[in-house]
Design brief:
Elements (H helix, E strand, L loop, with lengths): L24 E6 L10 E2 L6 E2 L5 E5 L5 E2 L1 H11 L2 E2 L1
Parallel strand pairs: 1-6
Antiparallel strand pairs: 1-4, 2-3, 4-5
């Protein structure tokens, strides 16, 4: 629904210890394989596979932690993320 604000419960099953390492700055990038054997990443929240090189996804500045679009939208206010 347009204009609806979804409040995420602090007990959401996707929340583990991400507050300890997913800080305020994130970036949108296209997924790139690191090698033939390393051809995907997983969302830090829901564990969704991230492997589409034609869709931009969010990750930490160092490209180490990835967040799917749905989880990014669900948690961006809680984590106070800004995209650079």
């Amino acid at each position: 629904m347009k204009g609806t604000i979804i409040m995420i419960n602090q007990n959401d099953w996707r929340l583990t210890n991400q507050m300890n390492y997913l800080f305020e700055k994130q970036k949108y990038v296209y997924f790139q394989k690191h090698s033939e054997s390393w051809n995907h990443e997983h969302c830090e929240f829901c564990n969704e596979t991230i492997c589409d090189d034609k869709k931009m996804e969010c990750c930490t500045i160092d490209n180490y932690h990835w967040i799917c679009e749905n989880c990014f939208n669900d948690f961006k206010d809680m984590f106070k993320w800004t995209v650079v």
